Amino acid sequence: MLKMKHIGELTTLLDVVEAQARQCPAQVAVICGDRQIAVAELSALGHRIARTLRVAGIGKGDRVCYLAKNEWEFIPLSLACVEIGIALVPVNWRLADGEIMHILAHSKSRMAFVGEEFAERLRKLQESLPELGQVVSIGTGPESLERWASPQSDLPIGDRIEPSAVCFQMYTSGTTGLPKGAMITNRNLAAAVPVTARSWGIKNGSVPMVSSPLFHIAGIAYALAGIWNGGTLVIVKDATPENLLRAIEERCVTSSLMVPAMILMMLNHPDSRNTDLSSLERIAYGASPISEDVLRRAIGLFGCEFVQSYGMTETTGGVVELPPADHLPDAPTGRLRAAGVPLEGVEIKVVDEEGHDLPEGGVGEVLIRSDQNMLGYWADEASTRDVLSDEGWFRTGDAGYVDRGYLHIHDRIKDMIISGGENVYSTEVENVLMSHPDIANCAVIGVPDVKWGETVKAFVVLSPEAFADEVSIINYCADRLAKFKCPTSVEFLKELPFNAAGKMLKRKLRADFWPLRDRQVN
Question: Is the pTM of this model over 0.70?
């Protein structure tokens, strides 16, 4: 078992910002586009939003959703939710309408904070969401968040903040095809954010850049780490390679967290060689497979330290790091293929199918225990019991082993694809495919892709006399699923491989696409 020492006393995000507002009120806390927000302004707006939510009848235990791109308003809105004990539900705007509808209905969100570009889309969905009340705009219009909250006092409400209160409800891809709401508490954030901030090189005076979406735990944890440690957070609304490169140069960014797909796009962008990247001190990466070649090229271009982060939504982000020293040329051979060592307060063990601990080198399921582990899945006790033991161990669904103190991820036990940092359960796609009138049976796997790490491939058995082709099947999925979940290729088979017990043999389908490869699941 791998283990690190425990963290200290609980501190909430609100405590941190309040202390900073007293000590250095004029310090710029957030930069987003041309807007700069001082920490005192951030704190005051958070209190006004909290009071306005109260006036609107939103109280402890309620849920409100955020459907917008990366915007600075996400930070004071998060502060307000912590202050009055409600959960913020960030929604992936890349999802199809039906998927968004499920999240809003399942979470019972009572209010929505929506980016201007998604307002009309939500308005259409709202007709079928009786519990969803007021919609507040993220932007500069007459119904904007700032104007909505402006009549209220900016004094703290002063209620006790419970460590076990849920502050974020993050929806993850589900093994059954429906997303599950992972409940992240104040205690989870207090355990995760200070520790990962140190891992990612964020300290007082740093200028961290948020390039990951704020509907993912990685983006949220990174943003809050910047605020927590007294840095000046740079939020990039549209994280294109050119926008990120420009922000690094113009804002003298010191650190960022990126998925390998974005690193590769930046490496290949024509502006990358003409941009001043000298301010960079450390880049964290993770969420999907990365090749050693791409990583070596990235180290050469950015000229800074690199750290790999392994974690998931249910663990409030990173729980394992591969530190900068292991990215140096003189690091042990093969070290870049490791996930790394546990962060402070994290225990890791590897178990066999019966749950027995395995010795070093034994391949089994990776289990994690720490105060970062989620409270559970919202309104889903059965799924919670499946992954969280009474002793506090979380089942990751990843197969791995420990070698000389380092965790290595070998493969996935759960049937999941990671494409460009987005999780896709095969079941989600298979359920949609099986609703197609011309499809008798199907199977979905992840196949290697240079840009995205993996993409979705479908194997389809057509019904007798059916004439569906690859394009029509992909378009059928595109009408019902987020783009990143749709198959990029379809292969037609007369039959799928099954064993004698009737279990589909996906390993046979994968064999031709993963010869002599390490999975490198980050």
Answer: yes
